[in-house]
Amino acid sequence: MSCIDDISEFGFWEGFFVAHWERREEVLWIELSGHDDRHLVCDGCGCDCRSVHDTTRRVVRDLPILDAPVLLVVPRCRVACPNCGPKLERLPWLDRHARLTRRLVQSVVRLVSVLPVSQVAAFFALHWSTVKAIDKRHLEATLPPLSAEGLEVLAMDEFALHKGHRYATVVIDPRRKRVLWVGNGNSRTAVRPFFEALGAAGCRRIRAVAMDMNAAFALEVKEHCPYAEIVYDLFHVVSKYGREVIDRVRVDEANRLRDDKPARKVIKSARWLLLRNPENLPGEAAKIRLAELLEANQALMITYVLKDDLREIWRQPSRKMAIKAWNEWIRRALASAVKPLVRFAKRLLPYRDGIISHAKWQINTSILEGFNNKIKVIKRMAYGYRDSEYFFMKIKAAFPGVP
To answer: What residues does the Transposase IS204/IS1001/IS1096/IS1165 zinc-finger domain cover (predicted)?
Structure first.
């Protein structure tokens, strides 16, 4: 008992000393008593008080001592405040009406930043909802508000929230690598709250926004950001080219060769060979196989060559050179006589300005692909989130950006 009395003198429970302690079924119960000369402060106005109105006893959880769970029996005083009337006494280690000490709350916050809520709850023997509520309150208090200060460019993308084509939209500052906003849905209505939160003055500061070929995003940016240029991302355009042109031509050519089983099998099994960039081919054998395939099939040769040439538009150092590369690519695509390629080129025409804008604004959504991978890890660690607001706050906390 003397050891516990000594511990109390180190300020673990400022203003109180240990009056009694005992172990009950592996739980350490510590009864505290207030020092007669302690400084009484009103929790409402913060003024000094001289008298106590009344006292109640409250059971409070604290951090374990030597691996033993700790329950404190704390006398909670209501002081006779001259300004507020009867009011709770302010304690530096225990919040108003709290059943957990600040030490325990801070430990929960530190641990839940790296572990799932369920594991932290099990570690501290707390209910899952208690740990979640602690973390959510901490995030609400510490996450910075949305600010347009120094913000000139944005990047927007969507990610899968749940199975069944349910999506959320994330908006980032690509230069500072921080998440600015996350919201449910990927429609115009869904992303509008971001621009409303940014404000009219903030929207006027935006000069460029990188995105995929999402018409809803583009229309909303044009409505709210009058000086912003749309910048379409290379990855999404080339990915669309792979699905709508290369895959379609490969299937058509395989069907044309249905009577030639060996040739058909070669083309049918060449999907990833054709979709890979030349520099990413796995070994010399793959390069030889690709060269033989393209030499034997003219339609695949045309679509493969134009896929690589399409990427060159994003590599131009000036707007003038980007326009030249665009015009040349469109001319060759329309003259190719490969129906899926011609169809894709015509569909791409309305996106011309956004593709060419990349020469001026060297931004893209590739950083968002990395963000999306980490978002998947956050979601997987928790086995999913039922509270979208909490999930979105966890995402923002994971990407605070660089100064």
So the answer is: 41-84
